[in-house]
Amino acid sequence: MSNSTNKRPVILTGDRTTGPLHLGHYAGSLKNRVMLQHTHEQFLLLADTQALTDNAHDPEKVRRTVLEVAYDYLAVGIDPALTTICVQSALPALTELTMLYMNFVTVARLERNPTIKTEIQLRGFERDVPARFLCYPIPQAADITAFKATIVPVGEDQAPLIEQTNEIVRRLNRQIGHDLLPEAHAMIPRVGRLPGIDGKAKMSKSQGNAILLSASPDEIHNAVLQMYTDPNHVRAADPGTVEGNVVFTYLDAFGDDQNTIEGLKARYRRGGLGDMAVKRQLEDVLQSLLAPIRERRARYAGDPGYVMDLLRQGAFKARERTQTTLEEVRTGLGLFSL
Ligand code: TRP
Question: For the residues 45-58, what does the mean pLDDT come to?
């Protein structure tokens, strides 16, 4: 690898492998990652061990999803020559770093982490929270620092995890006596979270309000038909509301002709434009966005051996990288070594 590539800032981000990716992932992060791979050294982590934190009862699903998410990455244009895709559980250095970092984090701090607090509430865990779940900011700090990533593209909800990562980095660097580990910056997408097709704040497969990247033309058609609009816009002639109207939100997110969209909005507000007409426009946009993605995905899914090979190569490169950091941390802390 050339020096100039080595000097590119390192990006690490990942996805829990709990289900195939959807349009929300595409709008919020995948599109960005496809661009960033040209200017940064990018690692994508298939976070299967993290997925187990609340899916330990279904490891088979987590295992299966590793490949599904890899297909999604490749289908949207993640280029394995530019981005290293790696499976979290294949990188033992991450676990060892986690164990070391745990000495630098208090239980009180974990319980105060806003992301963890919210997620524990959402899942109704209370005191029955799996220890690994409560601790997950620590392995996530291990993920980030093992690659010495300085940029971590994540959703806004994950920002407190980056803050906690940097606390660990500062403590460790102080203990070691020099700035071995870099601090990381969260890169939060400018676009807000994409709502589900039912208008709920978050698109998610488990809520049944998602359009998967692998959706068939019929599934796309039906999703658009069901899509939440303005419940008070009963007849085409009535004036309608654009704000909170999912069809327009998606047109803004995925349409490429801003003038046409603004024109549609004006007509809708004035009255005289029916929901079906706008939905037809959106369906066109989504069908042409997803058709090439679906085709590429089918090609990769038809050749799992090839994708497995990519994951092996990714693991190889990532093992080397993360093992080096681990050795540096061990040496820095002055641990015993044979
Ligand atoms: N927690 C992230 C999510 O919920 C996934 C993840 C695991 C991650 N390790 C990471 C993200 C490291 C950024 C950096 O999707």
Answer: 95
